[in-house]
Structure formats: C-alpha cells, structure tokens
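Section 3.1: Structural characterization of target chains.
Under the original work plan, the team committed to producing a structural model for every single-chain target entering the pipeline before any wet-lab resources were allocated. The record below documents one such target. The sequence was received from the expression subgroup and is listed exactly as submitted; it comprises 484 residues.
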Amino acid sequence: MYLGLDLGTSSVKAMLIDGDQKVIGVGHAGLTVQRPHPGWSEQAPGDWLKATEEAVAALKASHPKELAAVKGIGLSGHMHGATLIDAKDQVLRPCILWNDTRSHAEAASLDADPRFRALTGNIVFPGFTAPKLAWVKNNEPDIFARVAKVLLPKDYLRLWLTGEYLSDMSDSAGTSWLDTGKRAWSSELLEATGLAVEQMPGLVEGTDRAGTLRTELAEKWGLGSDVVVAGGAGDNAASACGMGTVAEGQAFVSLGTSGVLFAANASYLPKPESAVHAFCHALPRTWHQMGVILSATDALNWHSGVTGKSAGELTAELGDALKAPTGVTFLPYLSGERTPHNDAKIRGAFIGLGHESDRAVLTQAVLEGVTFAIRDSLEALKSAGTSISRVTAIGGGSRSRYWLSSIATALDMPVDIPADGDFGAAFGAARLGLIAATGADPLSVCTAPQTAETIEPVKALTSAYETAYGRYRALYPVIRSLGS
C-alpha cells in the first residue's frame, strides 16, 4: 500500500492506493485561511499537522489493515508558502500563503533585478516565496533575524514526518531562488534577499527517497518500520503525475478556484515576459510550463453569490449546446491576473450590457471570460515554444459540458474527460510514494487515465468565438488605463 498526502489550502487529503494503483480509501480534514488585513492570506502550520493526523485517523478507522501495509508516502502541497522556523524547529510566524499579495512592492523590486528572470525563468510574482521573505525582512526584522530554515508547506509536513529538511524540484521552482535549468539553489539570488543556501532545505527529485517516517508516528498510525517518504511535488506537478501528464506534448486544463493550463516539457523552455510559469517537473530531467489565471470557478462562484443561484443552477440554464457569444464580455480579473498580464491591481468587468442582458447572458459571459483567459494562457505557451494538440479537463468546473465545449471551441482542440476516478494531487503523491519505495519506472507508473468522453470544438462557432476573443483581448488595456 502507498499513501498520498495532499496539503491543500482548504483541506488535507490522505489517499491510500495499492500496488496496482487502485484507490482503497480517502480521508479528509478541513483547514481555514486567516486574512488579518486586506491582501493577506495566512495559515498556522500547526493546523496542517492536526489536519494530517485527522485525515490519517479517518483512514485508520476505515482501513486499518490496508494502512498497516503502507511502504511509501508521497507528499503534495500548495506552493510558494513561506514557512519560517528557528534553530529549534519552532514556527516563527503564520505561513504566508500563495494567494497573499502583501509583498507586491518587494516582488517588483526583485523582478527589476535581471538575474531573477535569467536564472529562475520566471517573473517574480507577489505570490512567490522570495518576495515574502523580503517583506518579512523589511517589516518584521526581529523574526527575519531568527530564520534558520525556510520551508514550503509540504516540506514542513515532511520535517514533522521524518525530521529531514528536504524539498523537491517542482515545489522549489516556485520560490524565485532556484536555478531552474540547473535544478539547484542559486546562492546569488538568495543573497539578494539576505539569505544563504544553508537556510534552504536540501534538494531531491520528486521520485527520490526523501526521509523515513519517524518511529513515533509509524507506531501511532499502525504502520511498520522503514516507511519511505518520497520527495513529492507541488500541487500542480503532483496533479500532473496523477493525470499522467509527464511527457512532451501532454497537457491538462484545470478548472478549479484558479485555472491552470499545464503542459509537460522534455526540456527547459523559459519565457518569463509571457508570464508563463516554467518550473521543474516532479520527474527527473523533465520540466513543465503553466499558464495560471487567478479566478476560474471563483468567477462563477462570485456570480453565484450575486445572483443567489448555485453554480449548477446557473450553468443548467444554458443547457449543453454551445451558443454563439452574445456581445456581452466578462473580464474575470476579480483578484488580478497572472498569465499573461502579471497585474495584481487589475479588476474585472462586464462590457456590452443591454436591457436584454438577462441572468443567462451574464452566466454565459462569465464562462466565456474564463475560457478566453485560458486561451490567453495557450497563446502564451505557444510563444514560449510549446505545442499541444489536445487537453484533458480536471477540476470542479469540468462537470459543465457547456464550459468544456466553450474551451474546446476557443482553443480549437479536443478536450478529453477522464473516466470516473480521482486523479488529482493526492493520487499523484501516492504514485510518487510508490516509485520512491519500489524503484519502479516513473513513466510506467504515471500513466494517463482512460478517456470517458471527448468534447470536440464546435466548428460552426469557431469564427464567432475568434471575434469574441479579439474583443476580449482588446479590453484589458482599456480597463487598465481607467485604473491607472
């Protein structure tokens, strides 16, 4: 048996699989986010440990014999979080999360240093880890002076599980301190934020052995000795391992709170000016690119809150058959945007409203706005040298056939819907645990699920969608000029 632990923003998920990769059981435990000031987003790392205990306890209650047979554990977690610990492994302050924007000034300052884009292959976004440490240095100097280690969220979980200070390449690539091409910490970039390599965890590949479960926890959970803990992955790379998106040309689109267009690469293809993320993958000698939009289902949920109708009710009003764009355009920049604009201040808008613009028209515009934001990510990936011909859809938004038809038409490529199953980050983490424990070939383990259905582009609407996308593209600079 193999255990995948996924530390999400809203919950910890523990998934148990067997040697044939069949899901045996799942345990969950909830988490909350604290927002003490506008733009802040924090969690107490101690809550992650309690939630992990709760999720594993749920598995132990339902599958004690199977849990006892665990030989490997894989880790996944939300990226970019700054978990600061002192020389005695005590947490110095709440973890500053990926969606915290307080360090926008520090991010701009670091990004103005050409070494950061040259070595990391990425813009220094406010959500990344390095600017957060620069903010702590500027605003909480007493805490900064006591920092012995900076750990990403899942790697704080690893410290508790194993006593080891280690991180994998995919997660570390989101810090703005990794030389992404060389897969090594950059002492030069660390020094630019007042830190040293000694304050970073050691680096391993996601499939490597990266510690052994502490005896105390193994006994508490009813596990045997020598349970291997894998290097693991950041949440998107772990999801890619779960989806089998690990080889050149493979891609998925994730319609979650945020939206991701993820493409696996056999080589390192940075193009930071496009706001595409170029990161190491969880497997050795592989990389990946991501276009990231900040509001995907979040945009529909916002619309749901305003109208008083559930997301399901809103999309049901549209039916399954794709309609031509109405002329009403929605910009989904409710909390700024990453790809391709790198603009934390831009905000959303409806354009083209008329007396005839009823609720269904607004819902259609919201779905199309997110679709066109994903099309922006596709264009950014193309400009960075990546070619994809089809995508697999995952995430809560993928339950809407209408939305998938919209995406297929806007991207002009088939969208595959995987067969029933959970192929997300926890499953990918469990796969990495299996590989680390057994030495299995990563490509033979990280295979793609069966396709249950393929949504093809609606060719009769391709031209109308191109026109609507052109209108969408023209609006960003206009809206930006109004807010400047």
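The mean pLDDT is 95.
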